[in-house]
Structures are given as structure tokens and as C-alpha cells.
């Protein structure tokens, strides 16, 4: 079972990741979902393994179940993200959540288009892309 912190993340990047996990989990609870979350000592704990991996956040209500993989600017196109999203791709309602702004070579950019292209290159056509600001908690499930 794959669980725990991504070793590619710095300590600050892990804090941003965990903040996004918390913001997404709290938002989904406020929308009436039953939520499990990894990394943040969530009251219900993390979800059980799904195809060999533990999702960052899962949300279930009477009509749907959702799986969220939270990634930072440094990990959104990593092999680890690809493995987890491939495991979750067979499940409708799978999201990758990334920050709304990333920086490369001292220039800010919107990572959504890049992540959508990476998912396409990986053959992951059912995974949706959303954003969550790790500092303000502003979430967009359909940017």
C-alpha cells in the first residue's frame, strides 16, 4: 500500500500539499460529503487502498464518489503522480488538484493547461483538473 509523503517534496512544498488536502477535505464536508483524507490527521482517517494506492482525499455522498490526488507544482508531472492517477483513473470522479499559480525560472504561470496536456500524454482522459490555493484555500474544481 502506497501511503505517506512524496519524497520529491521539500518541507515547504509538503506544507502546501497538506494545506490543500485540508482545504479540499473541509470544502467537501461543507458540501455534505463523507470525507477521508490522508496526511492531515483527519478524524475519519485516510481511505483504504484503491488499486494499490491511498488517495489524498475521498468524498462520498448518496449520488457520487470522488477521488482527489493533490499535487504541488514540483510533483504534478512526476512518476509518482502518474502511478497514483493511473490507479484511480478507472474511477469516474477522479481529480488532480494543483496550485493556481506555479513559478518556473522566476516567471509565474498557470499550471492547468500543462497538467491537462500531461494527463493526455499519460492516456488519463477521465481525470479532471482543479486548483486550490495553498495559502488562501480558494478552490476551483473546474478552472
Which descriptors would you attach to this protein?
8 strands; alpha/beta; single chain; 143 residues; six-stranded mixed beta sheet; globular; Trna Endonuclease, Chain: A, domain 1; 28% helix; 3 helices; two-stranded antiparallel sheet
Report, as a whole number of angstroms, the end-to-end distance.
31 Å
Beta-strand content bin: 15-25%
State the order of secondary-structure elements, H for helix, E for strand. HEEEHEEEHEE
Largest sheet: 6 strands, mixed
Number of strands: 8
What proportion of the residues is helical, as a percent range?
A: 25-40%
CATH class: Alpha Beta
Quickly count the domains: 1
**Uncertain stretches of 5 or more adjacent residues:** none
CATH architecture call: 3-Layer(aba) Sandwich
Contiguous helical run count: 3
Description:
With about 140 residues, the chain is of the alpha/beta class. It has a single domain, classed as Trna Endonuclease, Chain: A, domain 1, CATH 3.40.1350. The chain is about 30% helix and about 20% strand. It contains three helices and eight strands. The strands form two sheets. The chain has a six-stranded mixed β-sheet with strand order 1-2-3-4-7-8, sandwiched between helices. A two-stranded antiparallel sheet has the order 5-6. Strand 7 and strand 8 form a beta hairpin. The longest helix has 20 residues. The termini are far apart.
Amino acid at each position: 500500500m502506497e501511503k505517506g509523503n512524496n519524497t520529491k517534496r521539500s518541507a515547504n512544498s509538503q506544507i502546501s500539499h497538506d494545506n490543500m488536502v485540508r482545504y479540499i477535505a473541509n470544502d467537501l464536508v461543507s458540501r455534505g460529503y463523507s470525507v477521508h483524507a490522508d496526511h492531515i490527521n483527519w478524524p475519519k482517517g485516510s481511505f483504504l487502498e484503491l488499486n494499490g494506492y491511498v488517495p489524498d482525499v475521498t468524498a462520498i455522498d448518496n449520488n457520487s464518489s470522488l477521488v482527489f490526488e493533490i499535487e504541488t507544482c514540483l510533483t504534478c508531472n512526476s512518476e509518482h503522480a502518474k502511478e497514483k492517477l493511473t490507479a484511480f483513473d478507472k474511477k469516474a470522479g477522479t481529480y488532480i488538484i494543483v496550485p493556481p499559480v506555479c513559478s518556473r525560472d522566476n516567471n509565474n504561470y498557470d499550471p492547468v493547461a500543462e497538467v491537462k496536456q500531461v494527463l493526455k500524454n499519460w492516456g488519463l482522459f477521465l481525470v479532471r483538473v482543479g486548483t486550490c490555493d495553498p495559502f488562501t484555500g480558494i478552490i476551483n474544481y473546474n478552472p
